[in-house]
Amino acid sequence: MAELVPPDATTLEFKYSFFRQAVRRMWSYRSARIGFFVILFFVLVAICVPIFWPYDAKSDSNLPEKLQPPSWAHPFGTDQLGRDVLRRVAHGAPISLQVGLTAVALGLAVGSVLGMIAGFLRGWVDSVIMRLMDILLAFPATLLAIGIVAARGPGLGNTMIAIGIVSIPGYARIARSMVLSLREREFVSAAQAIGASSFRVLFRHILPNGLSPLVVQATLNIATAVLEAAALGFLGLGAQPPQPEWGAMLSDSYKFLTVGAWWPVLFPGLAIMLTVLGFNLLGDGLRDALDPRMLVTTKRF
Amino acid sequence: MLTYIIRRIVSLIPVLIGVSIIVFMFIHLIPGDPVLAILGERAAVENVERVRKQMGLDKPIWEQYFLYVGKVVQGDFGRSIRSNTPVMDEIRAKLPATAELALWAMIFAVLIGVPAGIISAARRNSVFDTLAMFVALIGVSMPVFWLGLMLAFVFSVWLGWLPFSGRLDPTITLVPHTGFMVLDSLIDGNWKALSNSLSHLILPSLALATIPLAIIARMTRSSLLEELTQDYIRTAKSKGLAERTVLFRHALKNAFLPVVTTIGLQVGALLSGAILTETIFSWPGIGRWLYGAIGARDYPIVQGVALLITFIYVSVNLLVDISYAFLDPRIRYQ
Fold first, then answer.
1. How far is B273 from B215, CA to CA, in rounded Å?
2. Per-residue pLDDT reduced to its tens digit, B45-77
3. Of the candidates A237, A272, A280, which has its C-beta nearest B146's C-beta?
């Protein structure tokens, strides 16, 4: 190799895929980095705590030590049954993350497939699917989730299903408009011309090219899902006591605020807020980084 | 304009039919026999039959649906299973409390959120902008019931400045005219009741306002920032207009459209947030009533309140769409 071409702006642009560029750009936002580390912290807690600090919620109770304020022995204090609040908050992490991720996976899978089918087939299929989505959107989200869990019975499983169902229309709309904007493009015609099946065109050609708005929506949606799961838990419809779910912990302990016990309420709430904040920060950063208009500006300058 | 309004209303009909089917199906989603779920497994046979008849569950399902819709259209939401009172009567008695709470929350959210968004956009990257947007991000990340609890702890348990629960101290009497206590006390010139009802309103309406406030502030900022990059703004600036004039007379007018939509969408958040807020603050509105009804498996109440809230939500969104067409003539002709 005698002559090496010096890398200039144009070759650099094509050296990295769109997603690698986006991740780099996202990493340049301080808020997105903070969000990433907050989430990483909770993920690590969720993974490590069951292994290194196991906990049996059913047998945990130590009445002589009930409602102790924060101390060295119990940094977050103890609740009305004398349970260590720090330990329960830590064990709430895997529950909340699991609910958030499962609900979002459900909504994303069902919603984007429905939306892609609607956008690809058009016609009456499109009308039927999107009218159904309009009907789901006519309900305020939290109310719909409460209704579904109230009918199906309380519990974590139904909570995930309810929150997932509530998020379906959002994904369906995004996926549909994504397919509508890409289906007339040349690479789609090319794929169809060489005889690719509709299924292949949709999932191998259209989907990877229109993934970014769905990824952004999913990230931000984990935040809402965690909040809604906590609300359902608080209303007694989600996780059932003595499960250390953050919302359920709040509903267990808030009656003791009047006797001055703020710690069993403060810390689970802070945990919810930080988790949600983490996903919101990361989602906002991803949205800015994946915005095609941002790509244009970085190319131009 | 009129054709636009009519077209929007007609397009709502299939949505409302769908909503009625879902709310109706609610009772059939319950695993097992809904009557046994309501009364418990060991209910007496004659009670089971009575409730089954009362709820019309002994008829074929399509007949049940048409009976249900026929009644709902006439404002008959059925009867509560526990108290046997018509659901509609109870809604009428309890709705003003929720409406008053939601209204105050909306006033807080708009009066603080919109100016905060405008200042943040006008002074982009200033200390105020950074701080306001950080607070707004915390606001959308917070569970509304937790904020309510912490506010209650600080201002009522700890400092003792504001009451924790209810709408009015039991020692104070107030003649109801409208059901809105602030309005009622103003009508009667009852200043004691006015200050007391206001002090009861502050904490729950602030808690309820947080999320809409944060969303409105963020939306106002980003919409205004987007508008400020447009060519006509540059033209206006190059004409030598004062920055204030460009901001308020040119940019703000156009930036307001998405903000109006956002405000409309927040009505849904307020109504479902009311379920949590009212529960915490023992606020005697339909939200707390719904919460109690879910616990007691009083399903006609759940159905009635869900239908009502959804109907309000859909109507507000319709009004937003219509106002949007008023504000932006381009939309009318699409």
1. 14
2. 887 888 777 777 777 888 888 888 888 888 888
3. A272
pTM value is: 0.86
B74, B80, B81, B82: CA torsion to nearest 10: -160
Partner-chain contact B140 A280, CB within 8 Å? yes
Q: C-alpha dihedral over B79, B83, B89, B90, to 10 degrees? A: -120
The DSSP call for residue B142 is S
Contact status, residue B210 vs residue B138, Cβ threshold 8 Å: no
- Cβ pair A172, A118 in contact under 8 A: yes
Dihedral in degrees, nearest 10, Cα atoms A13, A14, A16, A18: 80
B165-198 pLDDT per residue, tens: 877 777 777 777 777 877 788 887 778 778 888 8
The DSSP line for A2-21 is: --PPPP-HHHHHHHS-HHHH
Cβ distance A273 to B291 less than 8 Å, yes or no, reads no
Q: Do B143 and A273 touch (CB under 8 A)?
A: yes
Give chain A as a DSSP string: ---PPPP-HHHHHHHS-HHHHHHHHHHT-HHHHHHHHHHHHHHHHHHHHHHHS---TTT---GGGTTPPS-SSSTT-B-TT--BHHHHHHHHHHHHHHHHHHHHHHHHHHHHHHHHHHHHH-HHHHHHHHHHHHHHHHS-HHHHHHHHHHHH-SSHHHHHHHHHHHHHHHHHHHHHHHHHHHTTSHHHHHHHHTT--HHHIIIIIIHHHTHHHHHHHHHHHHHHHHHHHHHHHHTTSSSPTTS--HHHHHHHHGGGGGGT--HHHHHHHHHHHHHHHHHHHHHHHHHHHH-HHHHHHHHH-
Residues of A in contact with B272 (CB under 8 A): 140-143, 146
Residue of A nearest to B303 (CA): A147
| Nearest alpha carbon to residue A215 among A24, A3, A23 | A23
Q: Does A18 touch chain B (CB under 8 A)?
A: no
Name the 3-class secondary structure at B79: strand
User: What distance in Å separates residue B101's CA from the closest CA in chain A?
Assistant: 18
* A246-255 residue pLDDT tens: 988 888 888 8
- Distance between start and end Cα atoms, chain B: 11
Given the structure tokens 């400092």, which residue do they identify?
B159
Contact assessment for residue B183 and residue B174, using Cβ atoms and an 8 Å cutoff: no
What sign has the CA pseudo-torsion A157, A163, A165, A168?
negative
Residues forming a β-bridge with A78: A84
Secondary structure letter of residue B167 according to DSSP: S
Instruction: State yes or no: pLDDT of A292 exceeds 80.
Output: no
**Which residue type does A96 have?**
S
Of A150, A254, A284, the CB nearest to B149: A254
Q: Rounded to whole angstroms, how far apart are CA atoms A82 and A96?
A: 23
Least confident span in A80-89, A270-279, B166-175, B310-319: B166-175
Nearest chain A residue to B158, by CA? A260
| CA-based nearest residue in chain A for residue B11 | A131
